[in-house]
Write a structure and sequence with these properties.
mainly alpha; 0% strand
């Protein structure tokens, strides 16, 4: 692997961390340690390959509000989708198992790793990775497609088909937001609003 492709190493390490988390068991100490490892990897990756300008500039609150509204809208759409999916065991089973994590490990720790890792995913897959791809000659659209695909591949190791589908939708929407706003406030707000909403609402359907 040439040096220009080194930015993909954190993606592989992130996938390893998520895989080990699921293997350790949802809500176990090993689960939280593995997800914490993933968060550290993502933070280091952004520090090396991301841009500090993604957190600079005026109107930060407007970006956050915009992202929150988008995340809430996505959450509503997914809740309606859950009404259908709950009747499909192949899809509902793995999702229900993952959604039991707070009941096993507590809501505080689960929300903590959800927020930290969610922000880390946006910093890597909506800034660091596409930025490196564009630097290699990819267009904005191409970089978005490839970085979202990488995000979905990493998510695959969780073994939850619905999560992979969600990653594709969320990844595409938040990448668009990162390009439109030029920053990460809206993507992170959208991601966290959606994921926290899913954690709190979806257990009532599965």
């Amino acid at each position: 692997m040439t040096r220009q492709w080194l930015f993909l190493v954190p993606c592989a390490l992130g996938a390893l961390g998520l895989f080990l988390a699921r293997r350790a068991g949802d809500g176990t100490a090993g689960f939280y340690w593995a997800t914490a490892f993933t968060a550290v990897v993502y933070a280091a990756a952004w520090w090396l390959w991301g841009s500090r300008q993604t957190f600079a500039g005026p109107r930060k609150l407007l970006d956050v509000l915009r992202g929150t509204l988008i995340g809430a809208t996505l959450a509503v759409v997914f809740v309606f989708g859950a009404l259908v999916v709950q009747h499909i065991p192949l899809l509902a089973g793995p999702a229900a198992e993952l959604l039991q994590t707070p009941n096993k490990g507590g809501y505080f720790l689960t929300l903590l790793v959800l927020v930290v890792n969610g922000a880390g995913e946006e910093m890597v897959f909506r800034d660091a990775v596409p930025r490196q791809l564009r630097g290699m000659g990819q267009s904005v659209v191409q970089a978005g497609v490839w970085s979202t695909l990488a995000y979905c591949l990493v998510t695959c190791v969780m073994g939850v088909p619905l999560l992979v589908f969600a990653a594709s939708v969320l990844g595409a929407v938040t990448y668009y937001e990162s390009v439109k706003t030029g920053r990460l406030y809206s993507p992170i707000a959208a991601h966290l609003t959606w994921s926290i909403g899913m954690l709190l609402i979806l257990p009532h359907f599965f």
